[in-house]
Specification:
mainly alpha, globular
């Protein structure tokens, strides 16, 4: 495999991870304890991931571009909460 193939594989895996986070959040939204710091963090990241996936689904872009857009949305949302320099 070439470097390009490894990059595409990494991008694909990251896309699935974002979708899985959104799915887990949607399934367990009622179970997340929002009173704890971890619960609040999971709630925020889950909401951002769900929003990002829904927003990018309707865009007329390639999958890689959709993933990049979703990551940008999540990073922007986290930066509003003071969490900077998050990588996928």
């Amino acid at each position: 495999m070439t470097i390009k193939d490894w990059i595409y594989l990494g991008i694909t895996v990251a896309s699935y991870i974002i979708a899985i986070i959104a799915g887990i959040y949607a399934k367990n939204k009622a179970k997340i304890n929002k009173a704890t710091a971890v619960g609040k963090t999971l709630d925020v990241v889950g909401q951002l991931a769900t929003y990002a996936v829904h927003e990018t689904e309707s865009l007329d872009l390639e999958n890689e571009q959709k993933r990049q857009a979703a990551v940008q949305i999540i990073n922007q949302g986290l930066s509003w909460f003071g969490i900077k320099d998050v990588t996928c």
